[in-house]
Amino acid sequence: MLDLYHAEPVANSMKSLLCLKEKGLRFTSHYVDLLRFEQHSEDFVKLNPNGQVPVLVHDGAVITESTVINEYLDDVFPEVPLRPRNLAERAQMRVWSKFVDEYFCPALSMWGWHLMVRRVAQSLSKNELEKVLERIPLKEQRDKWATIAGESFTQAQLEESKRKLSVSIERMEKILARSEWLAGSSYSLADINSYSMVAAVPRMFPEIMNPQAMPLASAWLDTMNARPAVQAALSMPNKVPE
Amino acid sequence: MLDLYHAEPVANSMKSLLCLKEKGLRFTSHYVDLLRFEQHSEDFVKLNPNGQVPVLVHDGAVITESTVINEYLDDVFPEVPLRPRNLAERAQMRVWSKFVDEYFCPALSMWGWHLMVRRVAQSLSKNELEKVLERIPLKEQRDKWATIAGESFTQAQLEESKRKLSVSIERMEKILARSEWLAGSSYSLADINSYSMVAAVPRMFPEIMNPQAMPLASAWLDTMNARPAVQAALSMPNKVPE
After folding, report:
1. Sheet of A28-31, strands arranged across
2. Rounded to 5 degrees, what angle do the CA atoms A41, A43, A47 make?
3. Which residues on chain A are in Cβ contact (under 8 Å) with B139?
């Protein structure tokens, strides 16, 4: 029994959806509506006390954190291997995934909150917002909601995040000058874990990532977009208006 | 051939030293003197462009990031296994190690910079400091040095980090109420990756971690301190004055 609790096929939900699709695993999809704050509901917080998607439930074991879920899937279902056989490349896969989690993703996420989640927060009455805040289990998440419902991040914070996005794509470009994929000669979780983040950059900041400035990263993204598993993951329900 | 470039047996250097000692692996130790800024030297930055310790070199492969180094060591030298055999516990090991890297360690690190590295920064002349800053490869590290050489972190930032340290130890206490070790029934990289961070807390903030308030975390630390591998790692060169 394999169950995935996830939101739209973007950001961290996409990471685990794509891993499942690449492995051709059958799973029960449980859509968690972030716009209705289902991730903070009593039932969901029982599953993941942090109130965050995605969550994998496998034969009763609850696995959180998309990066960890993907290594778990490769541990348990190794038939379609998604970690390099070469152990130094496997380490590179983990270094890159760590960089995505700690640097690239938070930088992109700040802009996502500023441009998109902010609209949701501002559509709520003061009363409604208070009710939402009350139910958020992590203080860091509560603070972020309070920030975007108010004045949002400062211009300096947003610029710094944009700089980090540039650094991230430049780093990708350098890696792809040495190897076909982000962790060496084989397609791996390093590629899967980056896909949904990288895909957002040319749409949000075409000046940072375009085929002239970043030819290798752009070609990598085209190759990723053409993968059947990516297409299958992207065709999952998406209730967010364009 | 196994070479470790590391500083004192504290913080991230300790993580990899302890893993090597637990596995009983012979390695060549290369001491990197952080007080002389050897981590920013031309030679070292060739090895790790981020200018950070520890770095493992194994048969020519360069592995960075202590958490990744430790999984690599367990991949390559599985004779003394340090990852749970149960794959859900192995995922828990990764979730906890990720929490240490992203939450616990940065919170503790801010206090380390404020209380210790700050003294180093302030002992430098303006000219010397500029020379140090010039050679630091990561902007984030340069900014941190500039911060502590100046007014340091704000009281609000320091308090927030202290709150995070409390949260971290409370979370440990909860885990240890359910299982003997931090990732289930076997000693693992989750314990190794936390040791040097946790060991600093009762010394720095006895009000946060003491045997009355946090009996299970305190007992865990006693058990860790008694391990021969911990003692062996702690006896590595330590040139920092008490």
Report:
1. A28-31, A2-6, A55-58, A61-64
2. 110
3. 163
Give the chain B residue nearest A70 (alpha carbons).
Answer: B91
CB contact under 8 Å between B90 and A102, yes or no, is no
pLDDT tens for each residue of chain A, 242 residues long: 999 999 999 999 999 999 999 999 999 999 999 988 999 999 999 999 999 999 999 999 999 999 999 999 999 999 999 999 999 999 999 999 999 999 999 999 999 999 988 998 899 999 999 999 999 999 999 999 989 999 999 999 999 999 999 999 999 999 999 999 999 999 999 999 999 999 999 999 999 999 999 999 999 999 999 999 999 999 998 877 65
- Which residues lie below 8 Å from residue A228, measured CB to CB, with a gap of 6+? none
User: pTM of the predicted model, to two decimals?
Assistant: 0.96
- Alpha-carbon distance B241 to nearest alpha carbon in chain A (angstroms): 32
Closest CB to B65: pick one of A65, A95, A163. A95
Mapped onto helix, strand or coil, the DSSP state of residue B238 is coil
Q: Give the closest of B67, B68, B94 to A68, CB-based.
A: B94
Q: Classify A50 as helix, strand or coil.
A: coil
Q: Chain B within 8 Å of A31 (Cβ-Cβ)?
A: no
Q: Which of B63, B76, B98 sits opposite A68 (nearest CB)?
A: B98
Sign of CA dihedral A195, A199, A201, A206: positive
- The span from the CA of B163 to the CA of A153, in Å, is 22
